[in-house]
Amino acid sequence: xxxxGKMLVTAVCTATLCAxxxxxxxxxxxxxxxxxxxxxxxxxxxxDGRCHNTPGTANEPTNHTDRVAVLxxxxxxRVEEVVEFLDPAHQAPTHFRSVLFISR
Length: 104
Description:
By secondary structure, the chain is of the alpha+beta class. Helix content is 18%, strand content 44%. Strands 1, 2, 3, 4, 5, 6 and 7 form a seven-stranded antiparallel beta sheet that branches.
């Protein structure tokens, strides 16, 4: 049952990412804020479909963009490591190492 859950998450994430990728490079409007080792970091107008690795394990993400932030446990935004979809104007206590922005 545990493997079925992982397969389901992977399938949903893959479908969402494929459907959400823009045909040309676009940037999200706004900022994405997070903390690493107590220090604040900001991504300004992050590009859609581009993986943004953090400089360490990040937490306290706040999505002030107009896109969905897909948070990943590891670097390089591997689909099997998705930990959360963070909608615009939301924050979470999630720990992550990379983030990808998509439109829904």
